[in-house]
Amino acid sequence: MLRALGAIGAAGTFGSGLATARGPGGGGPPGGGGPPGGNPPGQSCDCEDSAGAFLAKYDFECIEYDEYDECVEWGFVLAEGEDVLDITVTERKDGDDDEPLTVEFTADGFVVQSVCAYGGRDTDTVEDEDGVTEFATDLTNPGGQQAAISNLTFCGEDDEQDPVCAELTAEFNCTVTDLDEPTGHRIDVTNLNVGDTEFGLAILDSPDEFVDVDGRFIKGETTQTVPGRDASFPLGGIVFWEDGDECEEFKGLTRAEDWGGIETPIGIPDPDAFNWGSAPASRSRYDEVVGIESIEEFNDALDAPGAPEEEVPTDVYVAEIDYSSLDPEEDWQDEQDEFFCG
Q1: How far apart are CA 312 and CA 291, in angstroms?
Q2: Displacement of CA 95 from its chain's centroid (Å)
Q3: What confidence tier does 303 reach under pLDDT thresholds 50, 70, 90?
Q4: SS3 content of the chain, % helix, strand, coil (to 5)
Q5: What is the mean pLDDT of the chain?
Q6: Where are the domains of the chain?
Q7: Helices (H), 129-205
Q8: Are strands 168-178 and 317-322 parallel, antiparallel or unpaired?
Q9: 124 contacts 113 by C-beta, under 8 angstroms
């Protein structure tokens, strides 16, 4: 999508390679063959049949004169559009400053997709929808000789870059045991996208666990196994992190304030299924987790006796920890030894 081009107003010289504001006197180069400010009928450059929309047109003119009215510096001068190009002459005919043949260019915030050069009553075009940064022109004058550039017309579009975002998922890895008794568990946190981020964890357990958002760091496109500390009977939990507003739409992420809660307390569908004697997670706590439908109710549950007084902010991004593999049936300890950490 093209945006309205705002005037940048950058200025420079031929020697520095920057397009400039119009200098005194004007006039095209002697070998260019093109009148200043325009081309003859039938020899115009435009963007109608080219990739991209019109960005700007630049004439090659004298931009500085000495006290004797002799040109001492040449450069590309904005003729139409907005001054969004930085143009450098890299090759000249016979080494003459007023005979440009090859140029390099950049357009901050834009992709140049097509460039049309005029000179010697001839036109030449280079085009690439993925972007053009250099143009070695092939212009000839009516006598068949190589002609220099009189003006350049640039076409292109906004250089829209995808935002750099993090996108986290988390799932149960294994249960930490001591003498066959659970003392904690481990979680695999994966960053699916390229953005690095710090993240926190909040787990409803016995006791609960809370690690603030600046507690851990994960690089983009990596997986990190983190301990659940003393959380050995997880009823459910979330991983949360901070990122820009643009990431919400770009990756379809969920803010804590929009989170729908825990559908089922995955960690212990039935507290009575454990054969460790008295399970720390009571039936009343299990029923409490079943009803969590928002981040506010989740934070209220974190305020249970023995839990830290911190809470998950409403403006962070969240993802529920997947405990679906931790699904005890009749005899959890005997049937699911495979989930004990090695």
Answers
A1: 18
A2: 43
A3: confident
A4: 10, 40, 50
A5: 77
A6: 1-160, 168-339
A7: none
A8: parallel
A9: no
